Amino acid sequence: MKIDIISIFPDYFAPLSLSLVGKAIAKGIIDVDVHDLRTWTHDRHHTTDDTPYGGGAGMVMKPEPWGEALDHVEATADGPLTVIIPTPAGRPFTQATAYELAAKSQLVFACGRYEGIDQRVIDHCHDRYETLELSLGDYVLNGGEVATLAMVEAIVRLVPGVIGNPRSLLEESHSDGQDALLEYPNYTKPPLWRGRSVPEILLSGNHAAIAAWRREQATARTRARRPELLTD
Ligand SMILES: Nc1ccccc1-c1cnco1
């Protein structure tokens, strides 16, 4: 999988060289290119935004740099592009979205600032590429960079070969393997910590009983915290 990220803050993505994504890059499973949008500005101040038509607070990202940046990514692509535009106005990014995007060959993340990218760029993307406008949740960020970091991690860990033990993906919160229940509580050594013990069932060695207890815990936790996820 190839991932292109276009941003005016390319340094935001230095963490991608760490941990899981870094290992996937080192294994050659994914390739990440971060592009500085200002590369495609042609004025002395490398201007990427301007005041909004119609007035209002804040600034809007100009279309020209975006058009040239996307042209560059397209010209250097091996196959079809899937463009992801993080935005508070997008549809929710969910685990199902992550699985869908983990199957794509090339993802392009267009990181805009909060006031947004000129709508004509977004319309251009919808006309020319598979394009998804996605939101992480109903809160305000200053730009798409943080959302992109989260989405890249959620997507890359699902790409075959990235996670050592694929079985572990089946038992996570929101994974299909658990019928999208929240994850059950987890424990490890020591058996007693600050007067707190581990549920006896987990020490029993009775795997069927442990699986049943974990499902009960996952269902109870989901009912308490996210009742809308329960389909029964
Ligand atoms: N608030 C934002 C501002 C700019 C780009 C994305 C977002 C966003 C994405 N998910 C929630 O917020």
TrEMBL record:
Give GO BP annotations, semicolon-separated: tRNA N1-guanine methylation
- The domain of life is Bacteria
Q: Which residues take part in binding S-adenosyl-L-methionine?
A: G112, L136, G137, D138, Y139, V140, L141
Keywords attached to this entry: Cytoplasm, Methyltransferase, S-adenosyl-L-methionine, Transferase, tRNA processing
Which cell locations does it reside in? Cytoplasm
Q: What terms describe the molecular function in GO for this protein?
A: tRNA (guanine(37)-N1)-methyltransferase activity
Q: S-adenosyl-L-methionine as a keyword? A: yes
The record's Gene3D superfamilies line, in alphabetical order, gives: 3.40.1280.10, tRNA(m1g37)methyltransferase, domain 2
Q: What class of enzyme is it?
A: transferase
Q: Where is the tRNA methyltransferase TRMD/TRM10-type domain?
A: 1-231
Q: Which SUPFAM superfamilies match?
A: alpha/beta knot
The catalysed reaction is: guanosine(37) in tRNA + S-adenosyl-L-methionine = N(1)-methylguanosine(37) in tRNA + S-adenosyl-L-homocysteine + H(+)
Any one cellular component term from GO for this entry?
cytosol
CDD domains the record matches = TrmD-like (cd18080)
Query: What HAMAP family is this protein classified in?
Result: TrmD
Instruction: Outline what the protein does.
Output: Specifically methylates guanosine-37 in various tRNAs.
Q: What protein does this entry describe?
A: tRNA (guanine-N(1)-)-methyltransferase
Question: What organism does the UniProt record list as the source?
Answer: Tessaracoccus oleiagri
